[in-house]
Design brief:
338 residues, 2 domains, five-stranded mixed β-sheet, alpha/beta, D-Maltodextrin-Binding Protein, domain 2, 44% helix, six-stranded mixed β-sheet, 16% strand
Length: 338
């Protein structure tokens, strides 16, 4: 009996050692890697993710199959909570959520059941600068106008930046944006503007450039503001929300919130994933960003990039933990819904 136990223990130890010594190529060979995004189809997040899923597999040792799954809801919290708590912790799941995840966690936003610093960040395709625009028929053609005239915007979810940023402007700058909720994606939100159901929408600049490029040149819409730390080269004449601040306090609050734009379109994998697989995914992501097939797809889809390695994104996420208590309370007052 004792001999049987010893043999079983030795066999178990040998199996454990073999599993531990398994190379990333051995692990990923024959596997499926799932990219889960917390958004619906049709927007810039979906477009970027589909391009990533097409090309990253060949850069992962073992060449696994890569599939994409949309899991929209609650401003991407449904997907991120699922990945954080329930997905396999083995490097076979990659996620994309809102760029404000770290800020939401810091503020204790309702629905957050994840810790962004425990996620293993894989890399960033580029910063994600949102804009707020109105149709040329709306009374509000500037942010100053939007302080005077109530302006209806299509909203896509309480936790999405499409809704958060206009509401922040209401609280900090005194604009009068009225969000009409219930639109599932930015594509639907833009269609609502086209149909005259609402006067404007807030979404990623890339989403408009990809879906409605003519709007940016033919005068169909007016961009009132862009939500980034600095002006996009493509929008040199559109002020940032930070530039519209009327005091140092407003500027500090808006800067803290708009810092999320630098996290942008950043992907992560699960907590407690083996370090060698995290590194493998990061280097595969980096290689994809330089892949001429991938960059060619970006050009074809009128999408831009500004990639960062996962290690740099991890540092940016950690920066949100350093916000002073005083600033945190001011940001909370501006960011939290009434």
């Amino acid at each position: 009996m004792k001999k049987t136990i010893v043999i079983a223990a030795l066999a178990s130890g040998a199996f454990t050692t073999a599993a531990f010594a398994q190379s990333p190529a051995d692990f990923y060979r024959g596997k499926t890697v799932e990219i889960i995004i917390g958004f619906g189809t049709g927007g810039s997040n979906d477009t970027y993710s589909r391009m990533l899923s097409t090309h990253i597999g060949k850069h992962i040792p073992g060449s696994p199959t890569v599939v994409l799954r949309n899991m929209p809801g609650a401003g991407s919290f449904i997907a991120v909570n699922q990945i954080y708590a329930a997905s396999p912790k083995d490097g076979t799941v990659i996620g994309l959520g809102s760029p404000t995840l770290a800020l939401d966690e810091k503020l204790g936003t309702s629905g957050v059941r994840f810790k962004t610093a425990e996620l293993n960040w894989v890399g960033r395709i580029g910063p994600l600068v949102n804009i707020v625009f109105t149709s040329n028929k709306a009374k509000a053609q500037t942010l100053v106008d939007a302080r005077i005239h109530e302006t209806t915007l299509s909203g896509t979810g309480a936790g999405s930046t499409a809704s958060i940023y206009p509401l922040v402007l209401n609280k900090v700058l005194g604009t009068k944006f009225n969000l009409v909720m219930g639109y599932k994606t930015s594509s639907e939100g833009m269609l609502a503007v086209e149909r005259g159901e609402v006067e404007g929408h807030s979404t990623a600049y890339e989403a408009v450039r990809a879906a409605k490029p003519a709007w940016l040149t033919d005068g169909t819409i007016t961009i009132l503001s862009q939500f980034g730390l600095k002006r996009l080269p493509e929008l040199p004449n559109v002020p940032t929300a930070i530039e519209s601040a009327r005091s140092d306090e407003e500027r500090q609050i808006l800067t803290a919130i708009m810092s999320a734009s630098e996290i942008g379109t950043s992907y992560f994998t699960t907590p407690n994933t083996p370090a060698d697989r995290v590194t493998t995914l990061r280097r595969a992501f980096d290689a994809t960003m330089k892949d001429t097939s991938f960059t060619g797809d970006l050009t074809r889809m009128r999408m831009s990039s500004g990639p960062l390695p996962g290690e740099e994104v991890q540092k940016m996420v950690m920066e949100f933990t350093k916000m002073s208590p005083e600033l945190l309370e001011k940001v909370r007052a501006a960011y939290t819904s009434n």
